[in-house]
Structures are given as C-alpha cells and as structure tokens.
Amino acid sequence: MPQSTVVIVGGGASGLSAAGALEWRGIKTVILEEDDQLGGTWARRYDRLHLHTVRGFSGLAHYSIPRRYSKYLSREEFVAYLAEYATHFNLRVVTGCPVRKVRTEPATPSSWVAATASGDWHCRVVVIATGQYRIPILPKWDGRATYRGDLVHSSCYTNALPYVGKRVLVVGAGNSGTEIATDLAEHGVAFVALSIRTPPPIVPRDPFGMPVQRTGIMLSVLPPAIADRLARLTARMVLGDLTRLGLQTPKWMPYSARRVPVIDVGFVSALKQGLVQVRPALARLTATDAVFEDGSAEPFDAIIAATGFSTGLNELLETKDVLNDSDEPVDLSGEPTGRPGIFFIGYTHSLRGHLFEANLASRRLARNVECYLQRTV
C-alpha cells in the first residue's frame, strides 16, 4: 500500500505551495495530480490569459518568481514557473492520478486514505488542494437541448479562431467572461455580446500606474465601507462613467461583499469602441436565438457560458462536516479543521490575490501540520 506522511490532493499552485512549505520544514509529501502533466490545467486555459496579480506578490512559498519573468506572467510563463518550483524543492508529484475519494482509515480514525484507481494512498495528514474552480457549471437553460449553435463552457475556450465571422454571446460578466468577450471582439468575430445577470464592479488593473493588487492590499486594512468608497472613486476617475456604456450600477462592492471585482484588461476599451454589446440576463434558448429576461431575442451562432465552477468537494470527501452549504471548507485555508489530520489550501476569497493568499496559507498550513504531527507521534 502506498504511504506518505502527508498526501496532497491536487498539484496546482496551492498544492505545490503547500508541498514547498512542508518540505521547507523537513516534512515529506507526495502530490497526487489528476492531470497528465504538472500545470496542465493552466496550460489549457485560454491563450490570452495573464495573471492579474504582479510578479512580486504572486510567488509561492519560499521561492519567489524570478525577475526574468514578466511583471504580469502569461499563461505559459506561469506553467514554467510551477515546473521550476517543483524542481527547486524536488517535489514528488504523481501525475495522471485522479483521487476518487478521501476517507478516514476505519481501523485508525486519525489516519486518512486517498483512494485512486491505481491504489489507495495511506497517510497521517491529507491536504485538499483541488481548488475552487474544479467542476464547470453549465446552467440548464430552457431550450438548451434544442439550440443548434455551438454551446460551450468558458473552460473549453482557447482563442477566437473558431468564432471568426460569427455572432457570439458570452454569458457571465466575471473576469473570464469579460476577457473572453474582449478577446473575441479583437480577433475578427462579427458580433460579440455579453449577457449580464448581476452587474459587477470593474476596476482598472493599474490605476495611476500602481497595480490594483497593491491598492487592494492597502485598502483591506480599512473599514469595508470606506475601502469601497475609495475603490469606486478610483474606478470612476480612471474608467469613467460606465453606465453610459450600458452597464448598470454594480449590485455589490468588493470589500463589503468580499468578492473579487472584474479587473479591466481591455474590456472597457472594447465597450467604448462598440466592439462588445451589453445584454440582459439570458432566460432561455430556442433553436437559433437567445431570449433575454426583458423578452428580447437575438440569433447567435455560438454561446460561451462563463458561468462559474463548483469545488466538487462534496463528491470527493466522505467526511461532509468539514464543508459548508456551498461545498467549500468551513475552516480557513491552512488552519486545522474539525477532523484531525485533514487540511485545506486554496479556498480563500480575497482581494489581495489568490496566489498571495496561497503563499501565506501554505506557510500557516506547514506550521499547523508540523504541530499536529508532533502531537500525534
């Protein structure tokens, strides 16, 4: 039976950072990654993708991103950095090894089992690092089965080439949806519309020449209402009045709602040039048309659903009491949970940057795991 002191389920950025922080403390780990290659999930993301967070605040634990990389790493650069990170710590990564179920050892409740098709891994500590964006969500719109156009989730989008000359609707105004709509508009697509259910706040990536991530870190220490007011003022000064472009006033604000806003990397410019049109929420589909909540209908050759993801943790974990109603961990990333020996990493909703938080959480996790192992010898 394969064994390791610590098994980490998931070899993305958070899982690697957790492994690096543990190895830094002399604790051996094995990472079980379902993809056939390290960084494969990132490698399959759309071509346009760059980090929204700056190099200096995006490195993983105990090994910063080298300065030879861009200020905002491209998809390819980040994949290369992940491989470099794994090599730096000589991490043991088993690729092509999806974990089917994580459960406690019946004979020893303080031990854990990560069940895979090739065998069960037994460990004293299991770290769940499969991420917030594991299972794509494709809404069951009325008429979806009869729609004759191309309907895909945004996770399947690579570039605009298959859509050149077509009418395309992007559904969902998060960061992926706005970037994909912009990418389509800039690369020969005949018509691009963005369907918005809940208008998000939009912030410039580099207001007044300063990365918005730095601003987010500074404003996060203020009362949420004050931080939101400053963020709204900054966005208005840099981007202008977006309601004149068809965008409604945001229904929530970042610091009060503790949700990541849309970081503008060309979307607002595309709106101002008329390259992207705003549409209401999508209500249903016909064979050829998208029908919106205001009753209007338009034909589209293709629909790209940037409609989010679920964690899939409810299906992965036999132990359900460590999850909330949204199938996310009850406890903070890196902290002990209600079940001894199971930890989570990479499930933080933060305005300071996901990778920034993963670095901090992995260091915290390593300290907590070390203490746990010392107590349970």
The CATH class of the largest domain is identified as Alpha Beta
Would you identify the CATH architecture of the largest domain?
3-Layer(bba) Sandwich
- The amount of helix comes to 25-40%
Q: What is the average per-residue confidence, as pLDDT, rounded to a whole number?
A: 94
Measured on Cα atoms, how large is the radius of gyration? 22 Å
Oligomer: single chain
Query: How many strand segments?
Result: 19
Topology (SSEs and partners):
Layout (H helix, E strand, L loop, with lengths): L2 E7 L3 H12 L4 E4 L7 H4 L31 H14 L4 E2 L4 E7 L2 E9 L2 E10 L6 E2 L13 E4 L13 E5 L3 H11 L5 E5 L6 E3 L7 H8 L4 H16 L14 H4 L4 E3 L2 H6 L4 E3 L2 E4 L3 E4 L4 E3 L2 E4 L3 E2 L2 H4 L25 E3 L9 H22 L2
Parallel strand pairs: 1-2, 1-6, 2-3, 6-19, 8-17, 9-10, 9-17, 10-13, 11-12
Antiparallel strand pairs: 4-5, 5-6, 7-18, 14-15, 15-16
Helix pairs in contact: 1-10
